[in-house]
C-alpha cells in the first residue's frame, strides 16, 4: 500500500468512526479521573511502500517501561488541542519537526490500564526527516512495513490481568519487537477502518 491508497481508504472512512471493541477501551476507573493524552501513528513513504514508525519506551520510565509504543504523551495545559499534544510529543521524543508531519485524521480514543484516555492521530512524515531520539524517554525507534501491520494474521489475541480484572490484548511480533496492549489495539482499529 502506498500513501495515496492509504488516503483513499482512510479519509473515506473518517465519517464512520465507531468506538473500538477492545475491553481496554471500556475500563472504568473510580479511584482517579482519567488523564488525557494523545499519540501519533506516523507513516512514512519508502521506496518499498508505507512504513509505520514505532518507539520502544525507555526502561526507567514509570509507566510501561520497555514497551513498544507510538510517540505521544499527556495533554499539557499549554497545548492548543490533543493534535498539538501528539505533534509536540513526537518532536520531543524522536526529533521529527511538527511542520514535517501532515495529520490526516484520528482514530477512536482508547483507555489504558494506567489511567489514560488516549486519542490516536494518523499523520505522514516527510521522507527526508531524520529521527533523533530523546534517551530520557525513548530507548529505540524502528519502522515496520505497513503491509505487515495490515495483515491480521500477524496478530494474536492474548489475555492479561490488569487492575485485578481479566482483559484481552492483541500481540504482534516483528523482528525482535513485541507490539501489544493499547499500541496493538490502535493498529487493529486502523486495520478495521481501512477495511470497512
**Class by alpha and beta content:** alpha+beta
In the residues, how many domains can be counted? 1
CATH homologous superfamily descriptor: Nucleoside Triphosphate Pyrophosphohydrolase
**CATH class, anyone?**
Alpha Beta
Give the second-level CATH assignment, the architecture.
Alpha-Beta Complex
Task: Report the mean per-residue pLDDT as an integer.
Answer: 84
Got a strand count? 11
Question: Would you give an account of this structure?
Answer:
The protein is of the alpha+beta class and 196 residues long. It has one domain: Nucleoside Triphosphate Pyrophosphohydrolase, CATH 3.90.79.10. It has helices spanning 3-13, 82-94, 146-150, 181-195, and strands at 35-46, 49-57, 68-69, 72-74, 101-106, 110-111, 116-125, 138-145, 155-162, 165-174, 177-180. A hairpin with a 2-residue loop joins strand 1 (35-46) and strand 2. Helix 1 (3-13) packs across helix 4 (181-195). The longest helix has 15 residues, at 181-195.
Amino acid at each position: 500500500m502506498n500513501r495515496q491508497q492509504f488516503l483513499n481508504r482512510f479519509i473515506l472512512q473518517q465519517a464512520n468512526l465507531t468506538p473500538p471493541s477492545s475491553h481496554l477501551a471500556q475500563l472504568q476507573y473510580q479511584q482517579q479521573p482519567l488523564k488525557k493524552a494523545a499519540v501519533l501513528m506516523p507513516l512514512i513513504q519508502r521506496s518499498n511502500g508505507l512504513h509505520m514508525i514505532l518507539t520502544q519506551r525507555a526502561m526507567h520510565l514509570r509507566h510501561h517501561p520497555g514497551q513498544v509504543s507510538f510517540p505521544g504523551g499527556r495533554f499539557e495545559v499549554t497545548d492548543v488541542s490533543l493534535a498539538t499534544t501528539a505533534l509536540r510529543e513526537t518532536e520531543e521524543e524522536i526529533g521529527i519537526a511538527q511542520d514535517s508531519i501532515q495529520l490526516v485524521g484520528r482514530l477512536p480514543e482508547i483507555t489504558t490500564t494506567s489511567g489514560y484516555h488516549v486519542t490516536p492521530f494518523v499523520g505522514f512524515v516527510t521522507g527526508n526527516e531524520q529521527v533523533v531520539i530523546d534517551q530520557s524517554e525513548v530507548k529505540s525507534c524502528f519502522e515496520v512495513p505497513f503491509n505487515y501491520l495490515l495483515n491480521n494474521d500477524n496478530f494474536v489475541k492474548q489475555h492479561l490481568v490488569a487492575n485485578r480484572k481479566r482483559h484481552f490484548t492483541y500481540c504482534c511480533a516483528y523482528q525482535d519487537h513485541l507490539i501489544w496492549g493499547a499500541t496493538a489495539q490502535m493498529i487493529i482499529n486502523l486495520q478495521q477502518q481501512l477495511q470497512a
